[in-house]
């Protein structure tokens, strides 16, 4: 056998022998991975240094809206329901109509009472005018009686003078004296009639004031009756979506009973995000917010305002830390976030869960993505 000929190992021996490494790949791969890891770590650290540490986020957020729960202002039976569930409605649109016959009758009764009160005022005004005319007539009567008394007194004086000189009779003296006394009595009667006529005027004026007060009360009753008649139609307070309808045709409802609700349109919705108290150090009004809706979609918003107290303070039983054992709990403060205009909001509904991220940087328009932050760092150098 040739000594230079190599022995061919058997298959079992070849299987147990180590495979020949691909030197070129194995020598290039570890440095490449290291460089990639180093670049990724640098980019991530740069992003956190420039962006990440300034982002305050929470998943304790939800879409909110000022939902109006409408109730009946009066008692009555439901005559008609004019909208369906989940129907778009306009401001002032009728939603539910109650039976109006009883309230129409009350309105007519109040109108009749007002007409009667106004007629009574007219009657008293005429009586006051008549009383003033009677006063003027009584004053003229007093003047006439006074003139008659003066004439009678003069006649009596002349008759007495003539009788004392022997030129007159005793009968003439008695007659003129009686006429003088009668004139004096007429003056007293005229003066009494004048006082009576004058005294009637304040009474009639007081009755006129009372009639005016009754007229005003009747007018207020009519206004209330007309208002109740108007409230037989329940209208939408604003444009939105009708829902949660509890009324049924023919149902007897009482005042204050909830019948239907109107949710605001999508353009009137906002987001309430409950941030921890430790996250509020840098949150300010006007900062941009990125919103991720659990139902799908991303939105942009702006911090509008912060609540004046923590959510716990507005609860039914606020905590009282001065009593009992104290356990410190991180509190949350509701932050109202306005949705920026020009976005597709048709799928939003009050109550949907949202994740909110507030950008608290001094320049909120700076690049926010990983590559944008890296590019900004490169340009900065």
TrEMBL record:
Residues in coiled coil: 100-148
Limits of the Multidrug resistance protein MdtA-like barrel-sandwich hybrid domain: 71-262
Pfam families, sorted: Beta-barrel_AAEA, BSH_RND
Domain of life according to the entry: Bacteria
InterPro entries, per the entry: AaeA-lik-b-barrel, MdtA-like_BSH, MFP
Keyword Membrane part of the UniProt annotation: yes
Domain p-hydroxybenzoic acid efflux pump subunit AaeA-like beta-barrel residue range list: 269-353
Keyword Transport: no
Protein name: HlyD family secretion protein
Cited PANTHER family: MEMBRANE FUSION SUBUNIT OF EMRAB-TOLC MULTIDRUG EFFLUX PUMP (PTHR30386), MULTIDRUG RESISTANCE EFFLUX PUMP (PTHR30386:SF24)
Residues annotated as transmembrane: 32-49
Region of interest (Disordered), residue spans: 1-23
Keywords: Coiled coil, Membrane, Transmembrane, Transmembrane helix
